[in-house]
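Follow-up to my earlier ticket, as requested here are the two runs.
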Amino acid sequence: YDAFIDGAKEGFGVAVQIIPYLVAILAAIGVFRAAGCMDALLAAIGEGVAALGWNTDFLPALPVGLMKVLSGAGARGLMIDVLQTHGVDSFVGRLAAIVQGSTETTFYVLAVYFGSVGVKHTRHALACALVADAVGLLAAIGVGYALLR
């Protein structure tokens, strides 16, 4: 019991330390979306995919994967928006759910976990995590087309 209490006290301290990081991430997400950067990014990706002659039906679900790297709550909000807009049983709705489970909150993990234990050099971890997120996103889209179409 004493070890549990000590751990809970330490956990509270960590929670207080990470609040500035969380606020910064959420503010950056809000600015990114409000400035229209998300729409511009999706339009550019859509043009590139269409130029290759590929199907662009996945594009409405893509913001979920892009946001998940920054914030799980933000990605969940985008997924709910996709579900309300396109329907729960639609291709885009199901794909958004697959994407939600196929990526990780990379910057949150790096900020919280590495920050709490004092890891200073995260360069290689960040690169590996972003590659894993990209692979997860592409795999989710591939699985969506293979199983949902």
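Run two:
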Amino acid sequence: MDFTLDETQAELRELAASLFGREATPERLTDHEKGGRPYDAGLWEAAARAGLIGACLPEDVGGAGLGAVELAVILREAGAKVVPVPIQDSLVAAMVIGRYGSAGQRERLARLAEGEIVLTAALLEPGRDLGAPPLTTARPSGDGWVLSGRKTMVSYAAESDAILVAAQTEQGTGLFLVRPGDAAVQAVPASTGEPAAAVILDGTPGEPVGEPDGAAYRALRLLALVAITASASGVLAGALELTTEYIKARKQFGRALAEFQAVTVQIADVYIAGRALDVAVWSGAWRVDAGLGDEAELDLAVAAHTVTDAALAGLYTCQHLHGGIGLDVTYPLHRYFAWGKHRAHLLGGVEARLDTIGALV
């Protein structure tokens, strides 16, 4: 399998790297964190103007119609600069709506492409793994549907125009759009500083997206895995770059840290973890686009395990090689560690990922 990006994907990566590198400077991130805003609205609008938000949306709503590989390309660059915008969950929800939604639901995506609204998806439930069928239920009521259940760690729930919710019906697992104002949205802390919430549904109206036959739900879950693991890959790459520059410049006993064999071995382990994660992410994303869902499941399960194990260990190594400055919140490394840790938590941790791989093989 050739993991070389094609011309369109390479140009998209250059565009994302250039925009995020120019806009998401450490100084701007610090100002954003001090400001207390849910996300950097200026950066979100800049991403929309550059076409990054619309890249994976359907062409008939102003998007470019690209797929999971391009989603991974964008989110890897966003992770490398830890950009404080709701691009991960917005794109995942929008791609599913673009594929399975009604004409009216798809039309709303044009506002997302313009950066006017935010979307999110609610997959996690208390005590449940990302791959477990939801306990949240949906039943017909009059001319519509009502949902009951509880979702947790829903990013940007209060800020979103709509939340894409997975729920069980008598026919199977379906997806429903819920307005934040119709549900009880309770803020919960996230290590990244991004807004997150528990969403409590109690007879809450929901608008069905596609048929409740499990197909849309599986697409959502696979794209969410692509998004989380690709973002984590970028986070590790950003931390590795920062650490590599640090050990080249930092001296002990008259020598750069990079000249010590113990240091080079440790930084090599971080590089290897990043390469292993990349291989699994690109393979999984490619198989999603190729319609090879079963094979994509296994690739993305491996990627998710790497995020919770070797990649997270790599972030610990980056902090260790920085010494005390690695723990200083005025130094950029803490953002990478927080983002990586958060994504490992979203994936359920090492044991959950091993159980998933065991079930698949």
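The only thing I checked on run two: The chain has three domains: 7-117, 120-212, 216-360. Let me know what else you need.
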